[in-house]
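Q: For a teaching handout, I want to show students what a protein-ligand complex looks like in token form. Below are the inputs, and the small molecule is iron/sulfur cluster. Please produce the holo structure.
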Amino acid sequence: MNNTNTSNYISKVLINWYNSNKRELPWRDINDPYRIWISEIILQQTRVNQGISYYLRFIERFPTVSILANSDEDEVLKNWQGLGYYSRARNIHKAANQVISNFGGLMPFNYKDVLTLAGIGDYTAAAICSFAYNQPYAVVDGNVFRVISRLFGIKTPIDTTIGKKQFADLAHELLSKDNPGLHNQAIMEFGALQCVPVSPDCSKCPLQNICFAFSSNMIAELPIKSKKIQINTRFFNYLNIEYLNNTYLKKRTAKDIWQNLYEYVLIESDHLLTETELLTNEKFQSIFKGVLTVEIINFSKPIKHILTHRVIHAQCITIRISNEIKNINNEFEKVDFQNVDKYAVSRLMELFLGMKK
Ligand code: SF4
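A: Here is the structure, written as tokens, with iron/sulfur cluster included.
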């Protein structure tokens, strides 16, 4: 077979396989670019099963791009709570406003225009343009890297510039020019269900006859990555400061994890602090300056919270105070315990709030 014949053959097999094996999902077989966009962003870092309920809730609350654009970012974050990678939600909100101001409220049709929206890169633009408009842009996600690398025996690391280009070119060559949307969905689903990362069941694979990894016993080795992810370890001491029926929350405004989410007053350190270390900590002393009685009620058990590039060791210390903290610059928000649920918080904070109930 020449290259075109091979590509046509693979694409046909993938589409046939897809038609009989695809999962029924709420964003399947739709051509609404707004819904496709939201589902793709949710699925970037979230498993399908977990993503379904978030997607349905999100679309119910923000059924159109203009309703999303006109909502508060805090509310968007609240609806994203628990999904993690909150920059996705901030970008969705920002992009919805771009759609209103730059494209008259209609999702753009042109691939280059789609790429101008916040948080949308090559992958998402290709997904939107091919699924919604059947335009010939190949999607290249982790599933596609794996399938292509194994089928053709590509050993170039997928996390290098040269590797990305090589895989993108091959994905484009494979793409069905008659049915790019269906082809893209088929290859992604094939990677998600059939050519899975660990121990795929190759005996059931319709492409086994032409698969390089299968014939050369290299399934476990492919695809290849060059870099190891650097893991950064951090230590968070959260202070749940109780004053009458209130606690204090702070919005994380820095460009860091969980930007614009709320949390208890935080003292970050290079290890989890003991009671003695806490009492002599400079930040602790400045927060409680002028407070007559500061009573430490409880130290929670430490929690190890794992994110993709970080491990966070955290504890929550409950503190009761006799009079209000000074709260210079209104850095902290005094919040009635009953209203804490209304604030968008990280999964870690959710755990500490759950302990409180
Ligand atoms: S034969 Fe195995 S490794 Fe090759 S494409 Fe099929 S499932 Fe993947």
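A: Two things your students might notice: The pocket of iron/sulfur cluster is lined by residues 150-151, 194-195, 200, 202, 205, 207-208, 211, 213-214, 219 (CB under 6 Å). The domain at 232-356 is CATH 3.90.79.10 (Nucleoside Triphosphate Pyrophosphohydrolase).
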